[in-house]
Amino acid sequence: MARASETASAKSRLRRIEGRHNPLAKEVRQAFARAERTADGCTAIEGVRIVEEAIRSGLRFRAVLFRESAEGVAERLLPQIGAHVETLSLPDKLFDGVVPSESPQGVAALVRVKEFSLDDVLERLQVGPVVVVMGLQDPGNLGTVLRSAEAFGSAGVVLGEGTVSPANSKVIRASAGSIFRLPVVAKASGGTEEICGKLRKAGVRMIATSSHKGTALDEASLTGSVAVFLGSEGSGLPRALMAQVDELIAIPHSEQVESLNAGVAGSIVLYEAARQRRG
What we know:
Elements: H1 2-13, E1 15-16, H2 23-34, E2 43-46, H3 48-56, E3 60-67, H4 71-77, E4 86-90, H5 92-98, E5 107-112, H6 118-122, E6 130-133, H7 139-152, E7 156-159, H8 169-175, H9 178-181, E8 184-185, H10 191-201, E9 205-210, E10 215-216, E11 226-230, H11 239-242, E12 247-250, H12 262-278
Parallel strand pairs: 1-4, 3-4, 6-7, 6-11, 7-8, 9-11, 9-12, 10-12
Antiparallel strand pairs: 2-5, 3-5
């Protein structure tokens, strides 16, 4: 009886909407499609695990949308969501048209992810290296870097010019919730020059990763105030930036492999930095 009562209570919270032109459904659809925040600063997320990570991370929810047939998902999540949050039930076809996933799990939401500045990250240099990502377009790779940055300790991640949006649903999914907790600077003002200028002013040693040349990773010093620059697999880091850094480092690997996946390379460097701090 108690379970039936809880189920009925959960269902009573859901407001059913039918039309694809519903303002909230349209707003969520556009946030996913454009991979950017809504006008009031919310980020669209989807999937049971990601929504639960957002709850665990203490994020504020503006709205939660459920697929009509996903009753079990609604019963599982609604008790964890504040009563003040708007909760909607959408027909399956309408829900599937709102979210980008080919295999939707039945829940999507608008949440407020905290925004950070480069100054915020520089205040956390004792935690670990700053990671600066330049021109990385693969959302899975960026998500992996974010996840590793939280796992191995990082002051924060700064997203430079040409990098995929952190509001991209694939970035959020690949980060496994780390993007909700790790300081991420989505739009560093002033571009590369200002990023480098602020790092130098703060006494941060700048290190760039290279696929072929530089100090071998196990011989490089990654302790102290350090910023690690990661580029894309295809073009790497801009030459102008490479000329400004204090040191190039390379991860030794088989000559048969041209270069490492950016997510893997970043994770290896972050692990080595954590190992050196412990040592």
